[in-house]
Amino acid sequence: MRIGEVAARAGVSVRALRYYEEQGLLVAERSASGQRHYPPGAVDRVRFIQNLYAAGLGSKAVLRILPCMEHGVLTDEMHERLLAERARVQVQLDELTATRDKLDDVIRAGQAHRRA
């Protein structure tokens, strides 16, 4: 796949894909004319990278995590790192869930007030 197709399918900009390449997160082969060509799994990989970024991980942390996801090889250090990242993400989820629940309460109270 060419860069524009990967970007469109993954819902990211072409610039983001170039950045991922610069960071070593994504690899593309180059044609004789210099065009990037990505393997079939590139879209899923980009989406996973985006999810890791959305969870607050930086490119260096993502770079350390990706080999585990691809090869299933997990050193003790990486296992600890993944557990720590998972715990951090869980805290974020818990906080977001609490925020959503509070918003639901406000919405219900507002709706009750509007009906009265």
Structure description:
The protein is mainly α and 116 residues long. The chain has two domains: 1-72, Multidrug-efflux Transporter Regulator, Chain: A, Domain 2 (Orthogonal Bundle); 74-115. It is 72% helix and 3% strand. It has five helices and two strands. The chain has helices at residues 3-10, 14-22, 42-54, 59-71, 76-115, and strands at residues 29-30, 36-37. The chain has a two-stranded antiparallel sheet with strand order 1-2. Strand 1 and strand 2 form a beta hairpin. The longest helix is centred in the C-terminal third of the chain and has 40 residues, at 76-115. The radius of gyration is 20 Å and the shape is flat. The N and C termini lie far apart (58 Å). The mean pLDDT is 89.
Provide a brief overview of the structure.
By secondary structure, the protein is mainly α. 72% of the residues lie in helices and 3% in strands. The protein is built from 5 helices and 2 strands.
Count of individual domains: 2
The rough form would be described as flat
pLDDT < 50 runs, ≥5 residues = none
* Main beta-sheet annotation: 2 strands, antiparallel
Instruction: Quickly count the helices.
Output: 5
Mean pLDDT: 89
Q: Would you report the number of β strands?
A: 2
- Taken in chain order, the helices and strands follow as HHEEHHH
CATH architecture of the largest domain: Orthogonal Bundle
Strand content: under 5%
Label the structural class. Answer: mainly alpha
List the helices and strands and how they pair.
Layout: H1 3-10, H2 14-22, E1 29-30, E2 36-37, H3 42-54, H4 59-71, H5 76-115
Helix pairs in contact: 1-3
Domain HTH merR-type: 1-68
Keywords: DNA-binding
GO molecular function, one term: DNA-binding transcription factor activity
